[in-house]
Amino acid sequence: MDSGLISALVPIVSVASTATVAIWTKRIDATTRREDRAHTLILDYEKRAADDKKAVLKALISATLYVKRAAQYVGTEFAEDSKRRAEAIRELYEFRMRLGLDDGIAELMVYAAAPVRELVDLLLDEWDLQFREHGYSLTQLDSCKQQLIECAVDGPPSADATVYFDGEKKWSELKKKETVWLDKLGNESGLNLDALIALCDRTLAAAHKDLRGGYGPEH
C-alpha cells in the first residue's frame, strides 16, 4: 500500500477508534447511572420497609403489654379473678384499635415474621371469641369510657356550685355504671387468664426477636 495513503488513513482510524471508545464510554456511564439509580431506589424502599416494620412491631408490643398487664392486674396482688378477667377482656377489645384496626393489622401481617403473625392470629381469635360472647357489655363499657372522657375534658370545676355538683354527680353515676358492666363481664366470662398471659409473653418475645432481625430474611 502506498505510504502516503497509509499516512492519510492512520489519523482517520485513530479518530474512529476514539469516537468508538467515547460512544462505549457514554453507554457504560449511562448504564452505571441507571444501575446506581435502581440501587438507590432499592435502598430507599428497604429503609422505608424497615421503618414501617419497626413501627408496626412496636405498636404490637405496646398493645400486647396492655392486655398482659390487665390480665395480671398489676399493683393489686390479691385482685379477684373476675376483676382481672374483666380488665383483660376490655384491653382485648382495645387491642385491634391499638393496632390500627383492619388497615393496621393488614400492615402488620405484611411486615411481621411468620411466628409473629401466627401468635397475633391467636390473640385476634381470642378477641373475636370474647366479642361474640360479651359484645354488648363491651360496647356499654366503651360508651361509659367515652362519656367519662367528655366529663374530664369539660375543664376545671365551675365557680357555680350547682354546675360543679352536677358534674360530680354525672361522673359518679358513670363510674358506678362502669363498675356494674365490669362486674357483669368478669363474672360471665370463662377467660383463661394464665393461658392469655402465656400467649402475651410468647407474642412479646417473638415481636422483640423480629424487631432485632432474629428470624432472618426467610420469614
Considering the chains and any ligands shown, give keywords for the structure.
219 residues, 85% helix, single chain, mainly alpha, elongated
In short:
With 219 residues, the protein is an all-alpha fold.
Largest sheet: number of strands, sense, barrel closure: none
Overall geometric form: elongated
Kindly state the percentage of residues in helix: over 70%
Q: What is the assembly state of the chains in this entry? A: single chain
Overall number of strands? 0
Q: Helical region count?
A: 6
Could you spell the SSE succession in H and E letters?
Answer: HHHHHH
Mean pLDDT over the full residue set: 79
* Structural domain count: 1
Q: What is the secondary structure topology, with strand pairs?
A:
Elements (H helix, E strand, L loop, with lengths): L2 H70 L8 H18 L2 H11 L2 H40 L7 H28 L4 H19 L8
Helix pairs in contact: 1-2, 1-3, 1-6, 2-4, 2-5, 4-5, 4-6
Walk me through the structure.
This protein has helices spanning 3-72, 81-98, 101-111, 114-153, 161-188, 193-211. It is built from 6 helices and no strands. The chain is mainly α. The chain has one domain.
